[in-house]
Structure formats: C-alpha cells, structure tokens
Amino acid sequence: MGFKDFRCARIILSGIEVMHMIRKEQMKDDGIARTVADQFYSLVM
Predict the structure, then answer these.
(1) Biggest CA-to-CA distance, the chain
(2) Which of 6, 12, 30, 34 could form an S-S bond across to 38 if both were Cys, CB 3.0 to 4.6 Å?
(3) Which distant-in-sequence residues (6+ apart) come within 8 Å of 12 by Cβ?
C-alpha cells in the first residue's frame, strides 16, 4: 500500500529501528536490567 505521507513513514520507520535496537541490546539503561517490554514501555511513557 505504501505510506500516505513522509511524516507517517518517518514515525513508523523510526519505531521499527528502535525495536531493532532494543532487540539487539544496543540501548543501555545505566546498568539497569530490563526486559524488552519494559524498555519499550519506558520509551512510550
């Protein structure tokens, strides 16, 4: 289908990249051990 506009594409693709970074454990959180879900929710809030 494609993206409707550039803004939506940017938001969706950045979210996908953040999830990849979390999965690869590239997001360090000052030594605090968190699950993938906890890291994602901390970014949303």
Answers:
(1) 41
(2) 34
(3) 3
In DSSP notation, the chain reads ---SSHHHHHHHHHHHHHHHHHHTT----TT----HHHHHHHHH-
30 Ramachandran zone, left/alpha/beta (phi>0; psi -120 to 50): left
Would you give the distance in Å from CA 8 to the centre of its chain?
A: 15
CA atoms within 13 A on the CB side of 17: 6
* Token representation of residue 2: 């494609």
For residues 8 and 29, the answer to whether their CB atoms sit within 8 Å is no
Amino acid at 41: Y
Mean pLDDT by 10 residues, the chain (45 residues): 83 85 74 75 70
